[in-house]
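Person: Please comment on this record:
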Amino acid sequence: MEPRAKMTHVTVRKAADGRAVLSQCLKSQLYYCPFCQPSIFKPRDYASVMTHIESHRLKAVLHREFTIFICHLECRTAKHFHCPYCPKTYVNRRDFTKHIPQSDQQFEVVRLLMAYILELMDQYPGSGSST
């Protein structure tokens, strides 16, 4: 089993994830932006929300297989970006784009160490148990 980036936030997306799923208010039949609080972007018709999401896409940071959308949810008081490799968030886009390759490298080192440890465990299957 190979470790992978922990994607715990809705604003960190992979192309394989497909289009963002919109929540619909049952009472009003309007849609919510998945990246904004309703107080920031009020529920609207589907086309308006898709246009709004396009504005998020234009401001997104692309890194490897990730598209990282700007977040206007309650995680922080200011809009921000979530790192796909660690729990850090950044308000400043430039700081975030400096951080993400460093975090990616650290994640890659951990991934390689885990792969090596798993390989060693496969070579010596009974070494960890006392019988």
The radius of gyration is 19 Å. The chain has one domain: 12-123. The chain is about 35% helix and 10% strand.
